[in-house]
Amino acid sequence: MVKKLTAGAVIIRLAFFLIALYVLFPFLLVVINVFRTANDIVANPVSTSGMSFDKLIKNLTAVVENTNFSFWSAFGTSAVVTVLSIVLLALFGGMAAWVICRNKTKWSMLIYMVFIASMIIPFQVVMLPLISTFRDVGKFLGISMLQSFPGIIFAYLGFGGAMTVFILTGFIKTVPYELEEAASIDGCSPEGTYFKVIFPLLKPPIVTVTILNGMWIWNDYLLPSLMLGHNGKVKTLPVAVQAFVGSYVKQWDLILTAAMLAIIPMIILFLFAQKQIMGGLVDGAIKS
What we know:
Number of helices: 13
Shape: globular
Helix content: over 70%
Distance between the termini: 42 Å
């Protein structure tokens, strides 16, 4: 028996459909225009006229073989920065969350509140002092913190640490303290207790924060553009796409094709991991 929808239900579904269309519209524009030439896109970016697979192959070849863009080099840089950042965030974030939960002192609460407060500070407020600070720190340590892997990874540890600690702290609070006491009685050191008892239990929230941080770091443009620049040897994919943007000419067909190639890994990751993302966020919200 077909359920008859009320007028209110129809309006709500229509509203959700329009919102979804609004959110997906930029992605649909990218998908449509990778099958077209630059002249077609400039003439009418929302049209489907002139679409063909031959133009898609031509655009893909032009992007991958472009010497100024260096697709594989940028792809490798993004992969290295993303993987190292999310691994270190999961490792250090879990340690920090565990120490904050198990040390019931005013200092631990103060540190936790600093983590939470840092989540609401806009990046634009600190981006210029950040560059100056990293330049001075690099001079002091004798290590280049700008236009280098160590600098950009260290920056992502700072900006991603707050959310990681917040989510993991909410989960660790639900882990029975008796497990740690039993490990201590058996002669396990604090380090061994964390890595042998606590860390294996953190798999669900760690998967969640790893995926969320990975999607953010892979797609980020502003921080890499400031710290790596557009003329350095180290470039992530979003920064490298600038090679197709000139002062007077913008190669929209190649820009959108490069953007599509950069989006595909994240789409695949989200499709396979969406249950873990939603499950981890719900668990963290309930347990916090």
